[in-house]
Specification:
Blueprint (H helix, E strand, L loop, with lengths): L5 E10 L2 E10 L2 E7 L2 E8 L4 H11 L10 E4 L12 E5 L13 E2 L11 H5 L13 H5 L1 H6 L3 H6 L3 E6 L5 E7 L2 H14 L9 E4 L5 H10 L3 E4 L5 H10 L2 E7 L2 E6 L3
Parallel strand pairs: 3-6, 4-7, 10-11, 11-12
Antiparallel strand pairs: 1-2, 3-4, 5-6, 8-9, 8-10, 12-13
Helix pairs in contact: 1-6, 6-7, 7-8
Length: about 260
């Protein structure tokens, strides 16, 4: 189910000594509470839409499923979905997933891990990626232009991030937008998981913001061969990509690309 992702408000623009009152479209940001087998997992700030994918992707990339199969997703489970404004999603594995430890506090649209667990605890549960045919650098460099056409909410508001799974030819397979970079990635991963397309062997993951450690970890967990971003990675992201055996590229704009990790 997809709900409104933009909202119209009145704003005043001042320019060249004059002002004008006009409507402006903004990205919607609302809390989403994620539950796994009726256990609280976390509350994250997100752009409504593709909520089931976000919940499933979040549980998967955080290692909460423990290999269990997702049987169903539904809104609420604590009462009426209307009463909770479609802001609670339950992921159901029939009790096969381990009981999760809830994150304390609200995960903002930008904070990601929020210090809830250590880097080693996340990274140690993942094995290094196996070798795959490399994706050509010119394909990686051109992904921003290829994904931009599907960034409809960004086009309207200029206020959301995008993530996309793409193949070795640079064809976007799944494109998702959200106010949070990590949410956009989880929506992509969740869609692939629900379509039984994980691990994402041989595929690349594009993100419209910086490449943080958390995004590298999510790409690694999903089995992507490469992660590319329009901005810079962090030093920890580079170290983690090298540990994972993941190609990591930044500043992919037009024909330009910076390659930070390139496994042999």
């Amino acid at each position: 189910m997809s709900r409104g992702r933009t909202a119209t408000v009145l704003t005043t623009t001042f320019e060249d000594g004059t002002s004008r009152r006009h409507p402006d479209e903004l990205a919607v940001e609302e809390p989403l509470t994620i539950r796994l087998d009726d256990h609280l997992v976390a509350t994250t700030m997100r752009t409504p839409g593709h909520d089931f994918e976000l919940a499933v992707g979040f549980c998967f990339t955080d290692g909460l499923l423990g290999g269990a199969i997702v049987r169903a997703c539904r809104y609420c489970a604590t009462g009426s979905a209307v009463d909770t404004a479609f802001n609670v999603v339950s992921v159901d594995t029939g009790g096969q997933a381990p009981v999760p430890t809830a994150r304390l506090g609200v995960t903002s649209s930008s904070c990601g891990l929020c210090g809830s667990t250590t880097i080693d605890e996340l990274a140690d549960r993942l094995e290094a990626l196996g070798p795959t045919p490399p994706i050509a650098l010119e394909i990686l460099a051109g992904m921003a232009d290829r994904v931009r056409i599907d960034q409809t909410v960004f086009e309207a508001t200029g206020a959301v991030h995008a993530a996309a799974a793409f193949d070795a030819l640079g064809t976007p397979l799944v494109v998702r937008e959200d106010v949070g970079r990590h949410n956009a990635v989880d929506k992509v991963v969740g869609r692939l998981l629900l379509d039984d397309r994980l691990p994402a062997t041989g595929l690349g993951l594009y993100v419209s913001g910086r490449a943080s450690f958390e995004l590298v970890q999510k790409a690694w967990a999903a089995g992507f061969a490469a992660l590319v971003s329009v901005s810079a990675p962090t030093s920890l992201a580079v170290a983690t990509a090298e540990r994972a055996g993941l190609v990591l590229a930044g500043f992919v704009r037009g024909a330009r690309i910076n390659l930070y990790s390139s496994p042999a």
